[in-house]
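INFO batch 0412 | record 1 of 1 | parsing
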Amino acid sequence: MTIARTRRSTAERALPKGRYIPRRRRTIWPYAYAAPALVALCLVFGYSFVEVVRYSLYSGSLGSLTYVGFSNYSALFTDPVFIQSLFDNLKLLVTVPVVTVLALIVALVINSGVRGWRLYRVLIFFPYVLPAVAIGLAFSYILQGGGVFNTLAQDAHLNFLVHDWLGSPKWVIFSIGGVIVWQQLGFGVVVFTAALLAVPAELVEAAQIDGARWWTVQWKIMIPHIRRIIQFFVILEAITALSSVFTYVYILTGGGPAYSSSVIEFYIYQYGFEDGAIGIASAAAVFLLAMSSVFIALYLWVRTRSAREEQS
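INFO prediction complete | emitting C-alpha cells
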C-alpha cells in the first residue's frame, strides 16, 4: 500500500500543477491511440468481408446480379474443377510437416554454435525475402522439361530424377510444394533459432554435466521449451499452404496441366476476374476463409489449453 501511494504521489508531482489525469481517463488513452488503426482495419477488411459474403448470395456479373441464396455454395461441390482445387490445397498441406521438421533440425544445429552460424542463418533466410514472382519465374526455368534441373540430372546420369516436373499431372503439385518448402524454410529457421536462444543456458549446462548427449538435450530440453512457437509456426504454415500460393501456381503452371495444380485461390481468380462470375468466386472465397479460420481456432484452443496446464 505504501509503495503504491509513493508511486502515485511521484507521478502526480511529475505532472504540471493542476494537470492531474484521473485513473479512468488514463486507461482510455491507449484505446484512443489505437482507434484510428482499428477504424481503418474495419473499413478495409470488415467492409470487404461483408461485401464478399453478400456477393456470394448472388449470381451474374456486377452489372446484373440475381439473388440465389446459398445456391453458389452447393454449386461449388458439384464443380469438378473446384473439387480438384480443394484436393490440391490439401495436398500442399503436406509441406507443413516437411518444412517444420527441416527448419527445426537446421535451427537446432545452428543453435549448437556451428562455426559461421550467423552467415548460414542469413543465407537460409534469404529466399524468404525474395519476391514470389521472381521465385516463380526462376523455378519455371529450372523445373521445365528441358530446364536446368533435368539437364544437370542427365549429365550426372541420374535419369530417375528426370521428369516433366511442371507438365506432368503426377508431379506438378509436388513441384509447387517443393518451391514452397524452399521459400518458407528460412522463415522457420529464424523463428525457431530466436526461440531457442531464449532457453535458459543453465538447463543445458546441467544436462551436459549429467552426461546427456547432444540429441538428448535437444529432445528433452530445447524442443519442449519452444513447443508453443512450433504450434504457432505449424498453424501459420497451414494457412500459407491454403491461401498464399496463388503466385506460384499462376506463374509456374497457370493451374495446369488439366487443372491438376489449380488451387482455390486460382479458382477464385479465374471465376472472379476472367469469367466475371462474381457470385461463385465470392462463395469460394468465403469457403477458403472458413478453412483458414478452422486452423486459427485450433491454434487458439491449443494455446488456451497449454496456458491452463501451466497454471494448474
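INFO post-check: The longest helix spans residues 278-311.
INFO record closed
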